[in-house]
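Protocol step 4 of 6: structure prediction from sequence.
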Amino acid sequence: MSDSIIEYDRQLRHLFGSQDRLDRLLLNNVHYTYKLFSTMSLSTNKDSPVPLLTTDKKFIEEVYGFRLEVQDKMRDFIRNQQRVLDRGRRLIFYIKKEYHLK
């Protein structure tokens, strides 16, 4: 059982590190958003498309690629969260059973 607890701790630490990396990516995402979209338009007219601040195709491709990367990292993070949650639940079940806890 101690191996399972150690593995759970390792996975949890890895998850926290992934959260830090994801947080940095999301901050960069905000930076790209401010460079690409007119944020003044966001607050004034919510029904029409937000105008672009640039039509530089290379920059738009860079933003698109970055957002795809963020999306992939978020999917991975959610999957890892679920794995850690499942492992934690199994550990709780095992500990309760082993030590006759309710």
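Step 5 (inspection) to follow. The chain is about 80% helix and 0% strand.
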